Amino acid sequence: MSNLRIGMISFAHGHAFDYLDGLLVMKDVEVAAIADDKPERVRELAARHGIPYYEDYRELLADRAIDAVIICSENARHAELAIAAARAGKHVLCEKPLGISVGEMERMIAECRDAGVQLMTAFPCRFLTPVVRAKEALDRGDIGEILAFKATNRGSFPGAEWFSDPALAGGGAVLDHTVHVMDLMNWFTGSRVSGVYAYADTLFDPERKRTIDDAGMVHVEFENGVFAVLDPSWSRNPGFPTWGDVTMEIVGTKGVISIDAFNQKNSVYSRSPARGNWQFWGDDMNALMLEAFAKALRNGEPVPVTGEDGLRSTIVALKAYESAAQGAPVAL
Hints:
Number of helices: 10
Helix content: 25-40%
Distance between the termini: 45 Å
Radius of gyration: 20 Å
Order of helices and strands: EHEHEHEHEHEHEHHEEEEEEEHHE
Shape: globular
Strand content: 15-25%
Strand order of the largest sheet: 12-11-7-10-9-8-15
């Protein structure tokens, strides 16, 4: 079988650089082209690896030999780029959140379906060993029926300036960090969220330069009666040993499962005057996600994390803002 040829559209989101590193070492995968409207961001990088570079993504999509694209643009551009890719006959792996409105996410899903291409949402946490083992334990019934979740996704403020712009980001930490853990809860329960009650504010910017939320608390109830609380925040300051965490306690009728998704780490101290740091040695979740995407496309199988999965998790984050503004629970 010939190589799967993948194009990358936009390096606005820092995850694109990790994805490129992962793709470059994958067997039977070729990075066919890179498109980014800011040449200073990636043109030199593309040249270093001998990858064709386009400033206009439409030129990349015009290449009929490209099978799929990975989109890592500003959140507000996901729909535009994914729909254009679908109309060009390309499968799509889109950075999370899938979109910034329900309508545009529904259009992305519909356009990909009508074009006969697959749409996958970038939720790499599903592929981490602690998460996979928890899902296996839940499927075996090790802790009985799920009653509740208590979860966190606490990180530091992302480096790109556009994360501070609501028009480009669509929301702050509540949007950025709710979707990952919400996807896991959806996956574990197999149920839909029926209601959301949330708080959002800017608490971790001492100079008060940001106009977007960096803290929140999101409470949800599922249709099957399971309830959950999630802390999605950019609360980690620059001195913290790592970017953040993803943790979850799953309370069942027969026991509790505790997940610390990034706890496979060494505490590293040296003779340098710098602080100690955490050196992660566990799974490369991005590489595992990319491998799963490529495998599904090669085998003609459904991608493991769909556009619908991205929509379901993002709806909760969008409703969280609605609840925070009203100061009251809202129904889905």
